[in-house]
Write a structure and sequence with these properties.
By secondary structure, the protein is an alpha+beta fold. It is built from two helices and twelve strands.
Length: 193
């Protein structure tokens, strides 16, 4: 396969060979696909070639149909490991409410979450780090060791926040609806020294 360019200097045209293939035994020779001119090429004579690999033929990458890997250290394709990663992210998000209460070494705060009232959720001792997780369906405005109001910065439903070096003895909340503290469908407030 070739094409013939018309020279600008008027000289005799010469056929230029082109890389070609016969796709899927069709019997017709076609040119390999090229791309746009390479931007780093000032002469304008380089173009990338598209490469296509049939699904599953790139052995270490895997196929779309590969099932998720069953361990983090086994021998699996990249696709299988990626699917395992996605499963972990999905499972982690769905189980956050049950993971938070069981964290070892944390001090749970105690108090109530009465609607439209400043409530102090207190720790037995001053804590340095605080974790808040809002498992409720309403935003919860809060403050550290200060009165909370409807205009205080809120933690949104489903949001998980970690605060370092807060040095507080209480987290004040001002929920728009009454909500339980440190239990399902409520606000989790934990800290450590």
């Amino acid at each position: 396969m070739s094409f013939t360019a018309t020279p600008l200097d008027g000289s005799s045209p010469t056929p230029i060979p082109m890389p070609s293939v016969v796709p899927d035994g069709a019997g017709t020779v076609v040119a390999l696909e090229g791309g746009p001119v390479y931007s780093g090429d000032v002469s304008g004579n380089k173009a990338p070639v598209s490469v296509w690999t049939k699904d599953g033929n790139f052995v270490t990458f895997g196929a779309e149909a590969d099932t998720a890997a069953t361990t983090d250290t086994g021998t699996f394709t990249f696709m299988a490991f990626f699917k395992r990663l996605l499963q972990g992210i999905t499972t982690g998000n769905a189980n956050t409410a049950t993971i938070v209460p069981g964290i070892q070494g944390w001090i749970a705060a105690s108090g109530t979450g009465t609607a439209t009232t400043d409530d102090a959720i207190t720790f037995a001792n001053q804590v340095r780090k605080v974790v808040l997780y809002n498992a409720a369906t309403v935003p919860v405005p809060f403050e550290f060791d200060a009165v909370a109001a409807a205009t205080s910065f809120p933690i949104q439903p489903g949001q998980y926040m970690v605060f370092d070096d807060v040095l507080c003895t209480a987290v004040h909340v001002f929920p728009s609806a009454t909500l339980p503290i440190n239990t399902t469908a409520g606000l989790y407030v934990k800290g450590w020294k």
